[in-house]
Every structure is written in structure tokens, then in C-alpha cells.
């Protein structure tokens, strides 16, 4: 495993990303492959977000999605919006390579750090982040309001 396998996402990666999202949370099946394809195109064309994929033998087996995070009370950060490695490839260093690539991108682009949210039940993920120098800052509840 090495970082030469990491590249920026392409719209043609949409099927692999759809499957990785299923791997992360089977309830995401309703966000179709076509919606994933459109979302990748939109993110690449209309935002300053960065999405790196890890590819091995022409198969995308992981991705990390970072988005600039601007606040009126903090230096600029990168917010991790999505981070998945295919289950059978976990614990092989791929996640470490992806997060390090995002961190390097953040440093190179003038960001002061990275933030992320992780569900309280994801204890293994929390250990991963702590091993990579991330510190737990607070519990919080997330609220959402859907528009019809």
C-alpha cells in the first residue's frame, strides 16, 4: 500500500463510490448511482472540495472527501465529509494513506487543520483518528430539517 495509488476522484468512479457508500451504510442505497455520478460532477465543477480515491488494480477501494470549512471565529479548516475504505481492505493502511494525503492537501492550501464528525458508536474509527493525532473535542447532537 502506498500513496501512488491515490488520485483525485473522476466522475467515472461513481459506481465504485456508490458501492463504497453501501459498504459504509446499507441505508444509503436510495441515493442512486446516477445521483452519485451527478454529485461527483457537481462537487468537482462547482465547489472547492477535494475528493481523493485509493485505487488498486483499477478498483477504487476507498475515498476521503474534504471540504473547506470557514467560520467567523476560527482559522480555516478542512471538514471531512466522507471517508470509507471497502470492508475487506480495512486495517491495511489505506485509510492512513488517504487521511495523510488530505492533511497534506490541507497544509499545502493554507488550512489550519482538519475537523470531522464521527458517530459515538464508531469506536474503532475513533481509535484510528486518535492514532493519527486527532483529539476529541465535544459531544454534540446533529439536527436536520428536510425540505419537501
The SSE string, one letter per element, is EHHEEEHEH
Number of helices: 4
Q: What structural class results from the helix and strand content?
A: alpha+beta
Amino-to-carboxy terminus distance: 45 Å
Q: What is the CATH H-level superfamily?
A: Gcn5-related N-acetyltransferase (GNAT)
The main sheet orders its strands as 1-2-3-4-5
- What is the CATH T-level topology? Aminopeptidase
Mean pLDDT: 92
Catalogue the unreliable spans.
none
Q: What is the C-level CATH assignment?
A: Alpha Beta
Quantity of strands, as a count = 5
CATH architecture: 3-Layer(aba) Sandwich
Helix coverage percent: 25-40%
How does the overall form come out from the CA principal axes? Answer: globular
Radius of gyration: 15 Å
Major sheet: size, sense and barrel closure?
A: 5 strands, mixed
Number of domains: 1
InterPro entries: Acyl_CoA_acyltransferase, GNAT_dom
Pfam families: Acetyltransf_1
Protein name: GNAT family N-acetyltransferase
GO molecular function, one term: acyltransferase activity, transferring groups other than amino-acyl groups
Describe, in plain words, how this protein is organized in 3D:
The chain has 148 residues and is an alpha+beta fold. The protein has a single domain (3-131), classed as Aminopeptidase (3-Layer(aba) Sandwich), CATH 3.40.630.30. The chain has four helices and five strands, in the order βααβββαβα. It has helices at 14-24, 33-46, 94-108, 123-131, and strands spanning 6-8, 50-56, 59-71, 74-85, 114-116. The chain has a five-stranded mixed β-sheet. Helix 1 packs across helix 2. The longest helix is centred in the last third of the chain and has 15 residues, at 94-108. It starts with 5 loop residues before the first strand and ends in a 17-residue tail after the last helix. One of its GO terms (molecular function) is acyltransferase activity, transferring groups other than amino-acyl groups. Residues 4-148 form the N-acetyltransferase domain. This is GNAT family N-acetyltransferase.
Amino acid at each position: 500500500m502506498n500513496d501512488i495509488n491515490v488520485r483525485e476522484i473522476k466522475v467515472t468512479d461513481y459506481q465504485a463510490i456508490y458501492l463504497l457508500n453501501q459498504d459504509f451504510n446499507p441505508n444509503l442505497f436510495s441515493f442512486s448511482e446516477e445521483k452519485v455520478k451527478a454529485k461527483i460532477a457537481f462537487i468537482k465543477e462547482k465547489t472547492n472540495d477535494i475528493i481523493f480515491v485509493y485505487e488498486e488494480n483499477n478498483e477504487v477501494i476507498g475515498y476521503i472527501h474534504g471540504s473547506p470549512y470557514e467560520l467567523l471565529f476560527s482559522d480555516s479548516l478542512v471538514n471531512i465529509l466522507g471517508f470509507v475504505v471497502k470492508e475487506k481492505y480495512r486495517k491495511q493502511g489505506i485509510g492512513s494513506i488517504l487521511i495523510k494525503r488530505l492533511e497534506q492537501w490541507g497544509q499545502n492550501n493554507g488550512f489550519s487543520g482538519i475537523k470531522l464528525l464521527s458517530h459515538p458508536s464508531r469506536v474503532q474509527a475513533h481509535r484510528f483518528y486518535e492514532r493519527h493525532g486527532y483529539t476529541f473535542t465535544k459531544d454534540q447532537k446533529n439536527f436536520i430539517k428536510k425540505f419537501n
